[in-house]
Amino acid sequence: MARSAQDIDLAIAAARDHDYLKALTTFIEIYGTETSPPIQSPKDASGLSYFGLCLALVRKQYKAGVDLCKRAIDLEFYNGDHYANLARVYMASNNRKKAVETADQGLKLVPGHEYLSEVRQELGVRARPPVPILDRSNPINVTLGQARAAKKDTGGRAVRKK
Question: Which residues, 6+ apart, have CB-to-CB distance to 61 below 8 Å?
Answer without folding.
Answer: 34, 55
